[in-house]
């Protein structure tokens, strides 16, 4: 899914064209070898962008969960939970993560 984002596709197009433009493919940029190498480069670029986007999103969620945890500690969990309509039992990391995702 992240490999199909606009950023990933743009990077894949750039990698494809770059690979086809290499000097050893100049004589036949649309030959089987050139196309295979370009497709492999495009797939690698999509993967790299997807990994970057996932890492970025995970970092954003970690920061959000940390901020929420700080707020819970300061305000007291029972007060935060009742405002959100959640259980007043002590929070788990999953509960905090769900809270972070709903606020993202």
Strands, helices and their partners?
Layout: H1 6-20, H2 32-75, H3 77-84, H4 93-103
Helix pairs in contact: 1-2, 2-3, 2-4
Question: What's the short version?
Answer:
With 104 residues, this protein is mainly α. It has one domain. It has four helices and no strands.
Task: Kindly describe this structure.
The chain is rod-shaped, with a radius of gyration of 23 Å. The chain is mainly α and 104 residues long. The protein has one domain (2-103). It contains 4 helices and no strands.
- In terms of DSSP E residues, the strand content is under 5%
Largest sheet: none
Low-pLDDT parts are none
Helix content: over 70%
Can you tag this structure with a few keywords?
104 residues, mainly alpha
């Amino acid at each position: 899914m992240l490999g199909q984002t606009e950023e990933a596709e743009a990077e894949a197009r750039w990698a494809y064209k770059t690979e086809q433009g290499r000097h050893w493919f100049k004589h036949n940029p649309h030959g089987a070898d050139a196309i295979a190498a370009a497709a492999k480069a495009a797939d690698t670029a999509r993967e790299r962008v997807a990994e970057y986007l996932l890492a970025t999103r995970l970092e954003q969620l970690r920061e959000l969960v940390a901020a929420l945890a700080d707020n819970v500690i300061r305000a007291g969990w029972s007060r935060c939970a009742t405002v959100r309509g959640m259980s007043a039992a002590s929070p788990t990391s999953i509960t905090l993560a769900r809270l972070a995702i709903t606020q993202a």
